[in-house]
Write a structure and sequence with these properties.
90 residues; alpha+beta; YaeB-like fold; 5-stranded mixed β-sheet
Length: 90
């Protein structure tokens, strides 16, 4: 059984603004990651974040999504989605 993917309000708003092809790519990448979080994906831990909960980012073409993984509730919580050039890693 895989993890659920949930979006913050800000991430959902940003996700809806990006082009359809990018939404499909990001959605597929997140779904694939959530189904097997220990598999080989283009996911990197974000440095400089809080120690208690690590932040990660996933690439999909020219777009990025940053998220947290909550293992206790089996959820991938997306906090930001955006274009590579304008993306801030938090």
């Amino acid at each position: 059984m895989g993890y659920q993917v949930k979006f913050s309000q800000k991430a959902e708003k940003s996700f809806k603004k990006i082009p359809q092809f990018a939404r499909v790519k990001i959605g597929a990448a997140l779904k694939s990651f959530a189904e097997d979080i220990y598999g080989h994906h283009d996911v990197v831990r974000i440095k400089g974040g809080p120690k208690d909960i690590a932040g990660y980012r996933i690439r999909a073409g020219g777009y990025r999504a940053s998220f947290f993984i909550w293992h206790d509730v089996m959820t991938v919580f997306v906090i930001e989605v955006g274009k590579k050039e304008n993306f801030e890693y938090r």
